[in-house]
Protein 1
Amino acid sequence: MFEQVSHEIKVTGGATKVWELYGTTQMARLAKEALPDTIVKLDILEGEGDVGTVIKITLAGGFSYKEKFTKVDHENRVKETEAIEGRFLHNGTLPVSSEIRSERQGRGGVVRDQEHH
């Protein structure tokens, strides 16, 4: 059984600036820097942030997974990823796919993330 989980984060930097992080591999790199005890390793296996990019994230305890960028739409600021490998992929622990949107809202922006488990 699949379910959908949504998150919404309001940001003050504006949608364009936020997209510079989310629309590339920079957000994964920033997350690793911010959470070094949780994300112990990040490898960009293929690509440079465009469609087809594959990243491998290794978490504390040795758990790792790979995700592939399946859509990167800079005009509409939408990125979609798909989990392609990982120990808990098929039991619902990891999102099977996710969609990230960076939208303008007032003087800032909002990031919407929908995950499908």
Note: DSSP finds two helices and seven strands in the chain.
Protein 2
Amino acid sequence: MLKIRSRENNIRDLMNGASTSGSLCSAFSHCVQQVKNYDYHHYLCLLELPTSTRKVALALRAFNVETARAMCVSSDPKIGVVCILWWQQAMYKIFANKLIEQPIAQALALVKSEHKISKAWLKRSVEARINDANREITNLPETIGELELYAEDTESTLLYMTLHA
């Protein structure tokens, strides 16, 4: 427990570092809370990452939380699809260096400017979420291959980007 608290303090120190302004510090704090609340096992793993890649991993995991939860936060699936489509547009704006007033998008924009984050991998992840959201609820993956492809397109892309950073 003491080790986890120490790592959490390191995350706070990282977010309060000189390389981030007040709004970016707030954006990364939001990312930390989202990952901690909705993807706790990955949050614990992020605590063990080297400081140099922790920011990237936090922003990417928070992005994943947002796109993964989109279909669950509303009773109307169409609203979930709209949320995922919003993230797709946000991704394009981030890579066009346009400002977005959303904490996770701001964190992604910062890590994109500091590291080589692949637009193709982010796009692949979002498109997999869109395809999954547009699928009929009774149309589940029929083969292990289909399930593996979905995992490759959503989770593995995040791991590749984290490793690349």
Note: The domain at 2-164 is CATH 1.10.600.10 (Farnesyl Diphosphate Synthase).
